[in-house]
Amino acid sequence: MKYVLVTGGVVSGLGKGVTASSIGVLLQACGFRVTSIKIDPYLNTDAGTMSPFEHGEVFVLDDGGEVDLDLGNYERFLDIKLTRENNITTGKIYQSVIEKERRGDYLGKTVQVVPHVTDAIQEWIERVAQVPVDGKEGPADVCVIELGGTIGDIESMPFIEALGQFSYRVGPSNFCLVHVSLVPVLSVVGEQKTKPTQHSVRQLRGLGLIPNLLACRSSKELDENVKAKLSQFCHVPLSNILTLCDVPNIWHIPLLLRDQKAHEAILKTLNLQGVAREPDFKEWITRTKVYDKFPESVRIAMVGKYTDLSDAYLSVLKALLHASVARNRKLVVDWVPAENLEDDTFKEDPNAYKAAWSLLEGANGILVPGGFGDRGVQGKTLAAKYAREHSVPFLGICLGMQIAVVEFARSVLGLHDANSTEFDPKTKNPCVIFMPEGSKTHMGGTMRLGSRRTYFNVADCKSAKLYGNVSFIDERHRHRYEVNPDMISKLETAGLSFVGKDETGRRMEIVEMPGHPFFIGAQFHPEFKSRPGKPSPLFSGLIEAACERTVVSKSKENANLTNGIHEPHSPTSKAQNGNVLKSSNGSLNVVCPNSSLNAEEGV
Hints:
The chain is an alpha/beta fold.
């Protein structure tokens, strides 16, 4: 087994995850099988209980593991299926060591960070690296390891010590270290400064890790004299100094590494030159160049709670992107803060209210993603109501599906107090209820998680057709609440159609609205299995319907202009007439025109 370790220096957020994923793509293109491990030095056992504002979205794996979003990058870039074991945290390591101590595995010994914790880290890496993740038998050829955080962080010290020992133990021909660092450009003089990287490498070497390659993040390509200076002071060959400069979209990064012959430097370090082939990037190049030239766009309104942080919806963004690329359209995401669609915002900030409704009304499609808590739920409900009443393509994921059901119960069935027990435990018409098997005392790892099977019970429904008319599908879940099975007959009599259910037939998985151009809710998270070139069927359906609405909208607009008709919709009246949920306690270069964030995350 060969190992490539990716570390980061100077500051966080340099793109270690994208760099690690791109190295994996490069090695795959050379004919090698690749697996990945992400090390997160925080004390949490997993990412499941952390707010998206802390670390972005929680990515869910087939085995139910709630992990760092970088594992989503690995799966999308490399088209592999990882397990929860591929995400190592300090919490997991210490839990493992303490369990061994309690069993008596260390009987007679004083349990210490060195050697017991460091040994546990090395054993974990070696064990997980042997597990195949690409559907083939036998272990991969190369394991790419990303060490989260920044060199010098106190919390990562046990891992750095363990990795230093590990590199010595496996030998220099089996271990390659790529250090990602920052080369800032001072705006005053326009000069690329190497000192931060020099200090970072000096600190890294002092901790027992010797970098083989330097991947330098900078706004522009490194000057030759800057490379020479870094080579001299960091003791890294000039040919192994790589530039990671700004690019039009994130799919350029593997190509950027290839053009600088990063694969040759890595293969030479790992003594793999004799068995490697020339990197094959035909499909990757085609995808990258085609996206840059799309003449038309499709506009999707993302109505969410965490719209100030695009990483909170990273997989949703990527799934939209994959689907739009397959449809030859450039994706435009309008971030709509759900709270800004609510009546309270109209009173407190009319401009924000008007802007939010303007974005919603101007979109070709509406997506309400998953979430927890009651903040913004009223706005999400109004968005679902608007999509239903105005025939706007709509996709609701997890909470988005539940909200669509509640809105339908209120507006169509006339059950004005219909709600989810998550927001009103005392509601007389609970459309969404807490799952019987759920825990009300422990939060971590107690949801319905991972890959679960959904059976189609309506053969000619839109969802079944999108999935290729199969009888069942396997998708990843993450939820505590479900649609109340006791209300299904009333809802279906009124017009909703629950076309997908679990193996018991009592848990609703997919809901559709017959007669609507595209109105689908899914209890699962289809975004987690979307891949470049293999978009999620439900996202493909949303984009397809949104593109068709673009054509229709343009035709109507031209007709209206010809007839002198122009009657803008009044969001105030629509919002004030809508029922709202009440709480029990009161890159790729995605264009985001109303946000300060331009998404340039992993594929």
